[in-house]
Amino acid sequence: MSLLTKQSTFQGLSGTVEYTVDYPEQSPVGWALVLHPHPLHGGTRDNKIVTTVARTCVQNGLMAIRPNFRGVGESSGEFDQAVGETADMQACVQHIAQTWPQLAQAPWVLAGFSFGSAVAAQLYAELADQNQSLPTRLMLIGCAVERFRYRPLAMPPDTLMIHGEHDEVVPLSEGMDFARTHQLPLTVIPDAGHFFHGKLLLLRQIVQAHLAGLASA
Q1: Which of 15, 18, 98, 148 is a plausible cystine mate for 82, CB 3.0–4.6 Å?
Q2: What pLDDT, in 10s, does the model give residues 41-75?
Q3: Edge-to-edge, what's the strand order for the sheet holding 108-113?
């Protein structure tokens, strides 16, 4: 995926959270946090949508962080309907700032796929409420936010939403409802299902376009 990939951990609210760091070839110009789908349905940091987004971020000079949520791999704890997972990701943001202080003021990207989109959206809202550093780009792919929403949300107007036309897990109408509620544009990939089989190149191109100009943002 990149010149260098390493494994590490940080302390979440229920114990150890493991994550993978994908480094760009040069010194990173920023970083990305990419969140995986439902832990109880096979979702891991190695999901192909997660790795596709992370790879695209790395190719744009970002250091990409791919955590395993509670109960996945070596991460401690049990599935918590996005509540505990969001709290863990707040701890992750703090961990990144402490571990890589040179990136504390750099642009960063927050992306989530399926269940990960629910954590990403609520993490953004939690950070905003606490006046913490907000991501420069927010991406919600296969948006399942309302299935796991536990708090009010206010999404930035430049949020990137991507959905498959024939999503069999989260119907397109569900993504449209979320987009309508928050007055966001929604990018639909024709003939794509939830896992974007055969459409990863197009997905990567859409993410790449959204990342354009990030370093100067």
Answers
A1: 148
A2: 999 999 999 999 999 999 999 999 999 999 999 99
A3: 4-12, 15-23, 62-67, 30-35, 108-113, 137-141, 160-164, 187-189
